[in-house]
Write a structure and sequence with these properties.
There is one protein chain. It contains 15 helices and 20 strands. With 526 residues, the chain is of the alpha+beta class. The radius of gyration is 30 Å and the shape is elongated.
Length: 526
């Protein structure tokens, strides 16, 4: 062995492999903080309604154009472990509440920047962590104080949806029109138990402007009819969902059949045809208008079904079959032996439409449908993809507003209130921890400053005016107007965010920043 685990006289004790790299003390802290800040800075210019887009190009030449923070950080090839922790902040934010990923990432980066200055001033990382945690508690208090007590009616929910989509790629339609579609989708699947977010699907299709986006009260399937002679539209349709194969059954044991003449061959063929015809007759006799089959369907069965006027699809995905069953009220059937009328569902209409080279089946269950689909259109693939991301965020924030604690003023007003509350409360804190709490407030201030910068305003002047109006009127945000912006009450302009988005951003950013700030030794080996 080149390295010995026991110490010899006059020789040093080697514990780590000779290829191991180790960074300690302030060098380790500086490296980690610098990496975290760099990641946060990469998405900072995308914040707000006037935020800019990023073009991400993969090694294979695939291009993504977006200003969605989660997508940007996910697509970036980030190797530094501390930088990866900022990416995890965005991922957590996206998973928990579906929006606010840029806010959380920028806040985490600024908390690290403030921590770096505190370390340079000989403030111990443990003191910084204690101060940050106390400041986060105060921030959550401030969010609770500014949460609106108004009932979350459709108008307020539409404002939340519109706010989340403003500044994102929505093609040739403004966010207000899309917001109405989003609210209608959420209300369709809302019950006393909350919003069933999984019951809402977004389906994108190129070939038209975003203004052609519509809400389908049901499911859209990419499967095509099994036979060209089948109908392409069925009104008031009885729907069957079949989890089986409609083919000649295979023997469960290996067997050979000795056929010695043509009559025997014809008899075997007729037996197979009779079996296949029996499948079609069972379906037709049950008064099925439309059948969705998860397995394979023999061509002869498809032909028989077409003659009976039945519209049928095969190889339907299990999840899609489940959604169709929920949309129509059908029961999934595993055998035709016990097939009954009670197993059928109903759809107001099942229609097949062509979009270029693609055929899509629309299964619309009407007002009673338990699943809905937002059918998003885009003139190009990039437009359709970015529109889908915007709609996903809007659906998530409306759901969060309803299920996780109401709404707060947007446009930076909540951040101004948080900063003010922290600074007002910090006077009662003793010792150096007070410096860390004040630094947390400074980090929060970067969010409205960035909004102002991206809106075309002077960030320092805007922050001063925001504080002044907040002190005088209790609420102040940055309202984008034309090529610049003004300070006003965001609630009056319908600019609202879910309180859950702000809470999650504070909690996840604080957790990541404190974890990185406490690291004073980085050991890496090849």
């Amino acid at each position: 062995m080149s390295q010995q685990m026991r110490q010899r006289r006059g020789q040093p004790l080697f514990i780590l492999n000779e290829d191991t790299e180790r960074t300690r003390g302030k060098d380790a802290q500086s490296s980690n903080i610098t990496a975290g800040k760099a990641v946060a800075e990469s998405v900072r210019t995308t914040l707000g309604p006037r935020g800019m887009d990023k073009m991400l190009v993969s090694d294979s030449g695939d291009v993504v154009i977006t200003n969605d923070g989660a997508t940007i950080l996910q697509k970036m090839d980030i190797e530094h472990p501390a930088a990866q922790m900022i990416v995890e902040v965005a991922e957590t934010q996206e998973e928990e509440v579906g929006d606010g990923t840029t806010t959380a990432s920028v806040l985490a980066g600024q908390l690290l920047a403030q921590a770096e200055d505190l370390v340079e001033d000989d403030i111990h990382p443990t003191t910084i962590v204690e101060g940050y945690r106390e400041a986060a508690r105060l921030a959550l208090e401030a969010i609770d104080e500014v949460t609106l007590t108004d009932e979350l009616d459709d108008e307020l929910l539409a404002a939340v949806a519109e706010t989340s989509m403003t500044g994102k790629g929505t093609g040739d339609i403004d966010a207000a029109a899309l917001a109405e579609t989003i609210v209608a989708a959420v209300q369709q699947v809302r019950s006393d138990d909350g919003v069933d977010r999984d019951a809402i699907t977004i389906r994108t299709q190129r070939g038209a402007g975003a203004s052609a986006t519509e809400l389908v009260q049901g499911v859209i399937s990419e499967e095509e009819p099994l036979n060209d002679d089948m109908p392409t539209r069925v009104d008031d349709a009885s729907v069957a969902v079949l989890d089986l194969d409609l083919e000649v059954r295979e023997a469960e044991i290996d067997a050979e059949y000795d056929i010695t003449n043509v009559d025997q061959l014809n008899a075997a063929i007729e037996a197979e045809e009779a079996e296949l015809r029996g499948y079609a007759e069972s379906i037709a006799e049950a008064d099925v208008d439309v059948a969705f089959v998860t397995g394979d369907v023999d061509d002869l069965v498809a032909s028989y079904l077409a003659k009976e006027g039945v519209l049928a699809f095969d190889s339907v995905d299990d999840d899609e079959a489940s959604s169709i069953a929920r949309a129509t009220g059908a029961r999934t059937v595993g055998t035709l032996n016990d097939f009954e009328a009670d197993d059928l569902g109903n759809a107001e209409v099942v229609r097949v439409e062509s979009f270029g080279d693609d055929d899509l089946a629309f299964i619309e269950g009407g007002a009673a449908a338990e699943t809905v689909t937002v059918f998003a259109r885009g003139g190009t693939e990039h437009v359709a993809d970015e529109l889908e991301r915007a709609l996903e965020d809007a659906l998530d924030v409306v759901t969060a507003a309803l299920d996780a604690g109401g709404v707060v003023p947007g446009a930076g007003a909540t951040e101004v209130a948080i900063s003010d509350h922290i600074r007002t409360s910090v006077a009662s804190v003793q010792g150096r921890k007070q410096l860390a709490i004040e630094a947390y407030a400074d980090a929060i201030d970067v969010l409205p400053r960035t909004l102002a910068e991206n809106t075309g305003m002077d960030p320092i002047d805007a922050l001063v005016e925001l504080r002044s109006v907040h002190d005088a009127e209790g609420r102040a945000g940055l309202i984008s107007q034309g090529q610049s912006g003004d300070v006003g009450d965001p609630v009056e302009y319908g600019i609202l965010d879910p309180a859950a988005v702000k809470r999650e951003a504070v909690e996840s950013a604080t957790e990541a920043a404190t974890m990185i700030a406490r690291i004073d030794d980085v050991i890496s080996a090849e």
